[in-house]
Amino acid sequence: MARVGKGKTKDAARDDAGRTTAEIEANIARTRDQLADTLDELAMRVHPSTVAAQVRAKALASVEQRLGRLYVGASRGVEQLKAQFVDEKGQPRKERIVPAVLVGGGVVLLLASARKRVRQ
Asked: Please, which residues have CB within 8 angstroms of residue 3's CB and are 6 or more apart in sequence?
């Protein structure tokens, strides 16, 4: 074995913290491997395809959240409208349905006559 210092072999040499050269070299190798892993992970995180996938996922989540809110709002609106034309027992309210149908029919006839005038 190679001699280091005052009659000590390389493996037996210790630093101020009491570690042998072999322990220090193993620690350096471990640190180097950890650093390589960290650099690989960072490279993957900043890769354009990874960044694009993250942006796409965030945009999709935002759209899904907005659509969910829109759906809930529309459902409430439909329930409120339904409550106007159906009583608590689920029976249709004729006193509200008949005028609504007449108004709707009038609007359709008005639009049809306006369209007919435009074509002439």
From this structure: 9, 10
Residue 12 reports pLDDT greater than 70 = no
Which whole-number Å values give the CA distances from 14 to 7, 17, 28, 29, in the listed order? Answer: 12, 8, 15, 18
Q: Residues 9, 1: contact at Cβ < 8 Å?
A: yes
DSSP 2-25: -EETTTEETTT-B-TTS-BHHHHH
Q: Give 92's contacts (C-beta < 8 A, 6+ positions apart).
A: 85, 86
Residue with tokens 């935002």: 62
Classify residue 4 as exposed, middle or buried by CB count within 10 Å of its CB (0-12, 13-18, 19+).
middle
Q: pTM of the predicted model, to two decimals?
A: 0.45
- For residue 103, what are its two tokens? 């108004």
